[in-house]
């Protein structure tokens, strides 16, 4: 009898936690249309964030995807292009490691939906031994900082919708006396903003509430992002990396940016993620004209990272598609695919364990096998190979 009483008592103690998780799952579904059971994680949790892994061994297959900028359809097309998801958006990428190089936010209308989409895929990929690594771009840093210069009206509306459901969820949790009273994410946020039209104020407030340091969306999604990443012999960064950044410490950079997003470092971002020479804004290696790229600085930076052969970056739109300069040491993967940018044709980069590099694209020009696939002016040694059906690929030993 005592055992039954003890068991029932344990169940009763779990009820508030189960209720909270149910409410979080309900809010997630209402915002994203995705069912993401939340029984093992609480988006409002204030527990210590997970340790970020800056250096990773090379997987059998590595895929890098450039800037997404709020375009869910193009984002999904990029994942399908690499054979990572099926027509229903379900992970079929097996043990593939995917790096999304930042700039999910701004310019588009489905920024939150992309964050939820990536979260869903992270869970599915993990079950197959795969992984998806998200990175900070300059637009993630800007939004946490409260710089909304590139936000669209539909982007504001999406965050207002999130705030409405999030508030409903908090009201539901407040009905359970055993649960700690949820924190009001709007606390301290002004009701009006000089220069902001009245019809945009609610969306503006919602975006601040969600993305400010320690905000629910910033903490849940962006705090897991890396700012710099080394996988095997490839260095990933949104804008570019300089030797001074390496000297400062790559692990230190990732930790400090994460701590800032979690509200542990004040409201101002670290200096190395703001300004033209920062990790997320640098363009020294991104000009489409090879002669304008500082190959000497790039080589010096790579030499300070043991085993590094190349730097892979986004940030600067490459109208000609994914390409490389500096003898394949700089690979640029932002193709402006979002309709909020240049509505470019999706392309993704693939690196196999033997350092074979391939570019997968949806550009129909490369489906004509009678045309040469190598454009030395833009590819600097990367060639194009077309499979029987679907996208083009490039293949090269780097």
Automatic annotation (TrEMBL):
Provide the protein name. Answer: Calcineurin-like phosphoesterase domain-containing protein
Signal sequence, start to end: none
All residue ranges annotated as the Calcineurin-like phosphoesterase domain in the record: 61-316
InterPro entries, sorted = Calcineurin-like_PHP, Metallo-depent_PP-like, MPP_Shelphs
The UniProt entry, under Pfam families, shows:
Metallophos
GO molecular function, one example? hydrolase activity
């Amino acid at each position: 009898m005592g055992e039954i009483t003890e068991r029932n008592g344990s169940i009763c103690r779990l009820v508030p936690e189960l209720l909270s998780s149910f409410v979080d799952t309900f809010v997630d579904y209402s915002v994203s249309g995705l069912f993401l059971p939340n029984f093992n994680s609480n988006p409002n949790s204030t527990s210590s964030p997970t340790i970020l892994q800056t250096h990773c061994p090379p997987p059998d297959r590595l895929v890098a995807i450039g800037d997404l900028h709020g375009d869910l359809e193009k984002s999904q097309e990029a994942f399908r292009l690499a054979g990572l998801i099926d027509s229903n958006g379900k992970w079929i990428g097996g043990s593939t490691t995917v790096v999304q190089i930042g700039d999910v936010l701004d310019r588009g209308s489905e920024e939150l939906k992309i964050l939820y989409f990536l979260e869903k895929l992270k869970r599915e990929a993990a079950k197959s031994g795969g992984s998806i690594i998200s990175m900070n771009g300059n637009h993630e840093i800007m939004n946490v900082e409260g710089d909304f210069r590139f936000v669209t009206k539909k982007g504001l509306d999406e965050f207002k919708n999130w705030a409405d459901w999030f508030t409903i969820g908090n009201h539901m949790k407040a009905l359970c006396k055993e649960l700690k009273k949820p924190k009001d994410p709007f606390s301290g946020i002004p009701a009006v903003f000089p220069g902001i039209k009245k019809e945009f104020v609610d969306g503006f407030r919602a975006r601040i509430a969600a993305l400010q340091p320690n905000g629910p969306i910033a903490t849940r999604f962006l705090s897991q992002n890396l700012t710099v990443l080394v996988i095997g012999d490839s260095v990933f960064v949104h804008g570019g990396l300089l030797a001074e950044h390496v000297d400062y410490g790559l692990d230190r950079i990732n930790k400090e940016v994460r701590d800032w997003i979690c509200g542990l470092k004040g409201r101002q971002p670290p200096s190395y993620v703001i300004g033209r020479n920062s990790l997320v804004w640098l363009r020294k290696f991104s000009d489409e004209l090879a002669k304008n790229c500082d190959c000497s600085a790039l080589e010096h930076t790579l030499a300070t990272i043991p085993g590094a052969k190349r730097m892979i970056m986004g940030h600067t739109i490459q109208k000609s598609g994914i390409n490389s300069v500096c003898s394949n040491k700089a690979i640029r993967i932002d193709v402006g695919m979002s309709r909020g940018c240049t509505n470019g044709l999706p392309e993704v980069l693939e690196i196999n364990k033997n350092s074979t590099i391939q570019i997968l694209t949806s550009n129909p020009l490369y489906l004509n096998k009678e045309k040469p696939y190598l454009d030395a002016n833009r590819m600097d040694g990367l060639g194009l190979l077309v499979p029987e059906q679907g996208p083009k690929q490039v293949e090269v030993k780097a």
